[in-house]
Structures are given as C-alpha cells and as structure tokens.
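Recap quiz, item 2
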Amino acid sequence: MLNKEFKEKLILVAGKQNVEDSNASRLVYSYDATPGFQSLPDAVVSPRSANEVSEIVKLCSEYKVPIVPRGSGTNLAGGTCPTQGGIVLLFKHMNKILEIDEENLTVTVQPGAVTLDLINQVEAKGLFYPPDPSSMKISTIGGNINENSGGLRGLKYGVTRDYVMALEIVLANGDIIRTGGKLAKDVAGYDFTRLFTGSEGTLGILTEATLKLIPMPETKSTMLALYQDLEAAARSVSKIIAGKIIPATLEFLDQPTLKVVEDFAKIGLPTDVKAVLLIEQDGPADLVSKDMLKMAEICKQEDAVSVQLAKTAEEAEALRTARRSALSALARLKPTTILEDATVPRSEIAKMVTAINEIGETYNVQICTFGHAGDGNLHPTVATDARNHEEMERVEQAFAAIFEKAIELGGTITGEHGVGEMKAPYLEWKLGTAGIHAMKAIKDALDPNGIMNPGKIFAKDTRKRVVVTS
Amino acid sequence: MLNKEFKEKLILVAGKQNVEDSNASRLVYSYDATPGFQSLPDAVVSPRSANEVSEIVKLCSEYKVPIVPRGSGTNLAGGTCPTQGGIVLLFKHMNKILEIDEENLTVTVQPGAVTLDLINQVEAKGLFYPPDPSSMKISTIGGNINENSGGLRGLKYGVTRDYVMALEIVLANGDIIRTGGKLAKDVAGYDFTRLFTGSEGTLGILTEATLKLIPMPETKSTMLALYQDLEAAARSVSKIIAGKIIPATLEFLDQPTLKVVEDFAKIGLPTDVKAVLLIEQDGPADLVSKDMLKMAEICKQEDAVSVQLAKTAEEAEALRTARRSALSALARLKPTTILEDATVPRSEIAKMVTAINEIGETYNVQICTFGHAGDGNLHPTVATDARNHEEMERVEQAFAAIFEKAIELGGTITGEHGVGEMKAPYLEWKLGTAGIHAMKAIKDALDPNGIMNPGKIFAKDTRKRVVVTS
C-alpha cells in the first residue's frame, strides 16, 4: 500500500489520472512474460516527461520506494516483475518517435515507442534499424535498450547496444544526464551509453534515446536447409562462418520445435527432419546470390538432405514469422513455458546442441531447442506445468546443467534476454565473485538507496553448481 | 623516490631487472606525445603476467602509489604522463598475440602487442581488424583499448570499442576479472567490456583482450577529390552519407595541411587547392566501383575541381600513408604541435570547418585542419612554441572556442584521443555537473584509494566557458 503522503505528492507530480493503484491495475502489472514470477506493485505511474520522471525518482528516493520501469512486459527473466512492490513506471505517454535524421542516419525516440513501429517508419525512408527481437511487434525500444535485446539479424548486424548512440537518463538522485550524441566517435568520459544499455533499469531510468540507422540493404534472400542429423546442421553453421560468410540470419530449429511451430503456423514446414537451418543474406543482389550459392553448397557438403530457396518475398516472410512465433507456439503445449538463452562461441554450437539433448534425457525433460545458431545463442525451451513440483524441480536442474555446460564451453548464461531475477542466482558462475563484487560497487555508487529495480541482476544467494552431465 | 620497503617488495614480485628507477629510465617515461606535460615517475615496472600485475596493484594500493599503464606513449592528451609520480607500468613482456581463432573470428592478445603487427598477422589469414589509428605502426592494443582509438576506417567499421569482445582486467583491489567472451551476444551483467574500454587506465589495468575480426573485404579503391572551396568539400561529405553510401574512408585535408604533408611526403599531392577529400571504398569489386562512381558524381556536383582515382595499390597506399603522416609532418614546423579532435555530427562538418577558420582569425592563430570528415571527427592543429607564452595563451583560447563550438553543434571535445589530463578541464562542458558526478561515483567505487592513473579524466577545476566567436 502506498503511503498517503507519498501518494499525494506523486499525484501532484504526475496527475491523478497517471497514478493508478486500484487492485485491477496493480494486478495487470504484477507479472511479465516470465513464468513463476508475480508480485503486486503498490501503484502504476505513467509520467509524461523526463522532468516528471526525475521528480518521481526523487520522491521514491525520499520514501525508499522501489521503481520498476516497464515497456510491454515481454521480459523472460522476471526483469520487469515488481517483486519488491513499489511503483511500476509505464511509458504510454512517452512513446513518440521524435526525429528521423536522414543526414546523420539517426532516429531519436522516447522509451515507450514500439520497436516494429520504429522499424517501419525508418524503412519507409530507405533506412534500416537491424535489432529485431522476436517480440518486436509489441516490445518497446526502452525495454530493448534496458535488456540490450538481440534478434534474428544479430549475427551480421549486432545487437541493440551496437545501435545506441545517445541516451537521456534519470539517475537515482533525480539528476537528468545525457550521454553520447549523434556522433560516430566520442571518447569524452566513461562509456555510460553502453553501461546503461543492458543494465535492466537497475542504474537509472531511460527517458530518451538516439539510435543509429544504416542504409537499407538492396535485396534479401532466404532459404531452408533440412537435416536428419542435428550435429550436421550445427557443423554447417560453423563452416559457413569459418568460410568467411556472415549471413544476415542463421537460425536453427530442432524437430520438436518444428512440429510445434508447423502445427501453429501451418505454412508447410517439414516436420519429418531432425533439424532445419533458416538462412538469409541481404545486400546487393549479386553478392547475395553468390553467398547463398556458397552457403547452399556448404550445407549439402555437411549432409543437408535438402536445401530450398524461398521463391517469393511472401514465402520468406512466412518462414521468418514462423520462426519468430516459436515461443508462442510452444506456449500452447502446456501451462508453463520456460525458455532460456544460453550462448556459446559459434564453434561450440554442435557440442552445445548435443549436450542439451543429453541433459534432457538425464533429467527426463523434453527440451525443444531453437535459436540464433550463427550467434551461438540457443533457446532451449521446456513446456511444463508449474503446479507439478516434481517435474519443475527436474526442469530447473536441467537448466542449471545447461548453464554450467555453456560456461564450460566459454559461453554465458544469457545472450539476449537479460539476467533479471530468474537468472541472478547463476550470474556468479559466469562472472566470479570478484566480477559480482565490482558490479555491486557500481550499483551501490549510483543507487545508494537500492530503489532502482531492486532484486534484479544481483541475487541474495548464488545457486550451488551442479556437476555437468556430459 | 620509492619507499625502500615498497621497492623491495616490488622487486620480489616483478624481479630486479623489471623494476627500473635510474634517472635515465625515469626520464624516458616522464612524458608522452602530448606537448606541455612532463613529470618523472618514481619507477618503471615491467610485469610478466596478470598475476604479477595483481601483486603490483595490491602493493600500490597498500602504499598509496599511483600506477600509470603505458603502451607506446603516443597519447595526445597527457593520458600516459605520470603527472603524480608513482610507477609507470610497461607491457614489453606482455606483448604477444596469443591466438587467432578462425572459427570464431577472434584474436586474443596481450596489451603490449603492436597494432600493426596484429593487423598484419590477421590479414595474412584473410581476416580484417579495422581500427587503424594513425599511430598504429607503434601504438599498442592495450593503449588502443584504454583510449578507444579510432582511425581512418572508423566511418564504415567503427572504433576499437566495436571490436573488443572480452577483457581480462586487474582491479584496484588486485582482483582479476574477466568480462565477455568469444560471444556475439552476452548480457550477463553490466557491460564492463565497454565500460573499461576508453576508461584510460583510471578503473583498472588491462592484461588481456579478445578482439572481433571480420572477413577481409575483397577489393579496395581510392580517390582524391580536390576543391577550391572548403565548404564544398564539407558539403560533399554530408551528401555522400545522406545518399546512403558509407565509404570505408572519407578524410579531409585543408590547404595548409596539404602543403606541409606534401613537403614531408613528396608524393605529388596538389597544394594549389583549398581542400582535398581522400575517399576509399572496400568490398566486392562491383559494389566498390558503383559506389566510387556515385561518390565521384556527388563530389563533382558539389564543385570539386577534379576527382582522381588512384591507379595502383601503391599510389593508394602512398595517399593513405601521407594522410597518416599529417601529425609528423606538422610537427616539423615548430617546436610545439597541438593537435585536437573536436567532433561534431556529420551534418555539421561544414559549419565546424568554417567556425575553426573564423576562430583561427579571431585569435590570430594559424590552424591546419584535417581529419576523419565522414565521422565528423576533425583534427585542428596548431604548430607553435610553448616558450612563447603570449602565443600559447591565444592557442589555448582558440581551442577552448573550438570545443565550445563543437558542443554547441551537438558534438564532443574528443572523438578518439581521450580526455587525459589535457582535456579534463573541458569535460564538464560536454557532460554537465551531474554527468561528471556520476562518473566520479563509479571511479571512487572501483578505485577508492585513487591510485589508478590519478589526475586523468577528472579535473581539479573546470575551465570557465568562453563566448563562442561565431
């Protein structure tokens, strides 16, 4: 419950209509897309400007009230769940695309702008914003920046971080700072633009961002390579990269995922093969056909049973959409869907895929695996039921084993979803005690009262390490 | 002078031969490439491993001795000058290229490796490391990372930061941490890889780095566009980018620079024109010729008096080398050469070039301007004599006016050289009091004793702002 005095002051700042604390509105923002996390906020506040955010943050600091910034709540690691109560900050009023600068190739946006709207608007001007998280139809740019979101085009074009040029941020003391600029080069001080990108709202509240755009590639081509052998598919991925081709997209789907996706999307995906690679290249037409030919050859050499080029743009779009719908499709199977994003160096993809299958057998858990194979970023997913405690325990053990294996292979516990609260107990496995300690020093320096999305990234306890099963 | 006990302990850690405190060796490391900065260190220490660095840092922490890490001392902002004494850390033993990983397209190096050696070694394998600071023949990768160095290829390929994937760092408490990995995607915790990149040795000591490589572009083409009008050259730059062409290199040299460079390099550069653009594109042959044609057309439309394609690879290399030698050439003119790197959004290049000339006239200072026009990163340079105090005062005022103008145009006080000690008094102009305050909180959190390259980035006093002259 909100302190009465605090609530009155909040209303003075944000307006009565922008401070909601009815049970209904609190319930709506009590969870995000992560299973197993739910907690009521004390209020939901929708500021209209950076100055209002600053005033709200000062109030929260004074009254020691947690603040959880939230876009569309597509987070998969509990990052936007208000697990310690406090206020959820919504950006429904701060959702504008402020400027597309065609001379400097930048776009300036408010945090609540929807990713796909931005992509469509810049593409209408012949420009390209590559980061394309699967949730882009509803995800917001603020959420993408806070999580450093990836997507299907990450292999060639990088992730959100690679496109953030400047930020306006409200710090825990209410200070409004601006980092970077419309500048290709800027070394004036510490790289706050990138420190805040991916910091999951634990260091400050993002209120504006300037993003880099690039010229739209001329053409794009799409193909599917089908395999009866998982490892052959994984080997194709390594061989393509080692062959010095960087495709725009290089996605992997295993048979269980294929079946579920086809059942959902009904676009004629093959379900009788063990794995599929979805491969795309973009750029000038000649170059694209040359690369596609070379990649098709590599796939065939690595025992692809068939390599099929998409014949039309519609067919290609259907394939991409099907891939993006994997989570939605899997979510229909059972009440609880747990999707992870362990990531390994590209060279280790085959080993990781094999290990995931072995781990699934060991813990008697059916794991569907798909993901951005070219990045080494896999999404092993389990459809389960949170009410079945015995099975949930096995699922958790299986994921712990997957994280351990990823780290053993030189990888990480999260490639693009973030740590949030769900993966916080595993973070020390990747960073070590000293790494966590240094991060905590920075967190405490910028947020001494611990009001900025508390409980995220930093865990109360690190999970005990398991013995890897393979 | 070193405390005797401290020195004995240092020798125990690093070996007698690696702890030098003779007057001669202290003198050698008392300055870097920045005019006006000189100060004797108490000793020069050359560690052989990260563990030795950790032990040295612990000792320095115990005895409150400053540590200044140093590559080849090509810093232009006083960043590697031991202005508060202490020890200069050399990496002559930690200079190896440890691994080139052709499957993951990475190279792992020690900080003392020379940039050009790395570039040559990876190019021999058909791979490409784009960051190419003009000092690359002698600069080290450790220095490049600490300064987030740019170069001629920054426009298309980005700067050092865009290629750092993983770091090993020794923190001020002696902890050794590892950030990142051979991973295209990694969001496990704060982005320490980028926070430390460009932090100028003020947060920790870099002991190893893994850098991203890309496939070597197939071909490269080079041309010179000559102008009798500075602004026409600047307009051509904006129009090329707005035309959605991103050339590999887009360098600008004004007439005073051209004359000096030609006098130095004697390769037949035109000295009877007001400005030259050096333009390069790389990639597949067809694409390169298409882009070069389009750019030549734009230059002609914008009143280039001549556009000349380099006929041979040797001619192209001579042009690039001449451009890279600009600082050396200018340094021959007078005892003191002050080179700055104010940076503006690309669209503001014409305004900035005009302003620099006006500022030169106002303060009666001859400014030669060259630089990475495509990035908006200019290097206005003054050849002067530090012993002429009256002139030096005017030079300083002129540079203050240049910084002020750059910031007014949405730019920054340094694009690629770093803040160091020289530009620290101007940093608040760019970041504001709140920005400096937040940076200082991080510095204090990670380096509570203030031993890591003290006096750099953070100034005792901010310089008073001047009134811009145009």
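Residues 196 and 462 of chain B are 24 Å apart (CA to CA).
Chain B has four domains: 4-90, 97-215, 219-312, 333-446.
End of item.
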